Amino acid sequence: MDLQELMSGWLEAVKETGFVAKGSIHEYRRNCGRKSCKKCASGERHTAWQMTYYLDGRQRSKYIQEGQLDELRRAIANGRKLEDMMVRFGLEYLDATKKSGKKK
Ligand SMILES: [Zn+2]
After folding, report:
1. 76: CA distance to ligand 1 center in Å?
2. Structure confidence by residue, pLDDT tens digits, 41-50
3. DSSP conformation letters of 1-49
């Protein structure tokens, strides 16, 4: 297997993996700010989510809407698969391009 074959195998694998993301989803409770809200008045408050991630060496977080949760969870799972694949393709590269033991 040469580098060209390895590369097309990689692109195929990325295509099959689909949409990816990297970060972790955290659930928390927050106040909605409405004065008449019974949930907030009772202390129950509202469930909210944020994604924590690292970018440019800094930890950051971003609010997630409820309708975005499922797709984001899938994308993060796909991202983990992609990271595994990166390790595997690196190993495959080392095996595929290793010269035979005999020195010329
Ligand atoms: Zn509220």
Report:
1. 29
2. 999 999 999 9
3. --HHHHHHHHHHHHHHH-S----EEEEEEE----TT-HHHHTT--EEEE
